[in-house]
Write a sequence for this structure.
């Protein structure tokens, strides 16, 4: 299975592609960080992100796209840019008929480091180790995009097992709100 | 000049097209509200919005696109959907080389009613009057999209005059922060 992870942003948007199967070593396919100048208008910046995403999708033809789920608690400007770049990634994947999943930063950190509160550096160290790289991917957006892809590979496998198990249980027996919630 | 206004949203996304020149009556070209089911995943919903936007852009070939500027003070879920649908509109316009402008809800209300605190109904009444329509465009998203287009027609003319005047003043004489800020 091949997953393309996106750490969305306007100033820097990380795109990382990883191959893997549950229970087997994972490997790096490609990683790229799109940068768009803050002096450009928002249309030109989003278009810059879209073009590189399209190029990576066409080159690597992933089976799934994983995008960071954005919350609006943080800095307004940053959150808006992140939400906008994320939307460009989501709609690009949908246009190609590729399933899209959203993972929170703490889900990603927990997946690769074992702790949802890990710092950037710890995520970078684990991404380097898990993908058996010679050096840590830089900038942090590159490592974060790869971490998203790894998180999706692993959670995808776990969710598939959970769904298979849940399919055997009548819906009325499931705890309230146990259905996976999308980012709507 | 032809302006396509977008009141972004996932559940309902208003798209309104208006023709006009400063100092002359304005006229309705087309108005449409895209609806996407909350049960669909985010990728399918954004794709639904993108398709209708592309159709309207191809049909009406506007000179400019005006999108509502989103703030993240409000409900998190709603704001995210609005930011995502807005990003899809901005990048679609940029792809076609059409200039994009963002206007705040209070700028739009002030443009069509004279008050930045006008309610939805007042905006609807004025849109109906200004475009000489027989009935108020429904739902409110349709009227809001048309109000955005009207706001842009009028503010565009005013901004062009201001820019022309400012071009004659050395930049150092302009008050700090007087340059128009984009939504980055």
């Amino acid at each position: 299975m091949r997953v393309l992870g996106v750490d969305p942003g306007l100033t820097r948007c990380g795109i990382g592609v990883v191959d893997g199967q549950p229970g087997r070593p994972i490997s790096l396919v490609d990683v790229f960080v799109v940068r768009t100048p803050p002096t450009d208008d928002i249309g030109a910046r989003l278009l810059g992100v879209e073009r590189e995403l399209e190029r990576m999708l066409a080159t690597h033809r992933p089976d799934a796209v994983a995008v960071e789920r954005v919350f609006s608690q943080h800095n307004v400007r940053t959150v808006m840019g992140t939400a906008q770049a994320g939307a460009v990634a989501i709609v690009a994947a949908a246009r190609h008929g590729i399933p899209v999943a959203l993972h929170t930063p703490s889900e990603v950190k927990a997946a690769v480091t074992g702790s949802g509160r890990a710092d950037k550096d710890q995520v970078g160290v684990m991404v380097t180790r898990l993908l058996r790289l010679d050096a840590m991917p830089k900038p942090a957006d590159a490592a974060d995009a790869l971490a998203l892809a790894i998180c999706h590979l692993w959670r995808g496998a776990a969710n598939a097992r959970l769904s298979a198990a849940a399919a055997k249980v009548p819906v009325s027996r499931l705890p309230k709100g146990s259905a996976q919630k999308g980012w709507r």
In short: The helical segments of chain B are 42-60, 76-95, 105-113, 120-130, 140-166. Residues 174-184 of chain B have pLDDT under 50 and may be disordered.
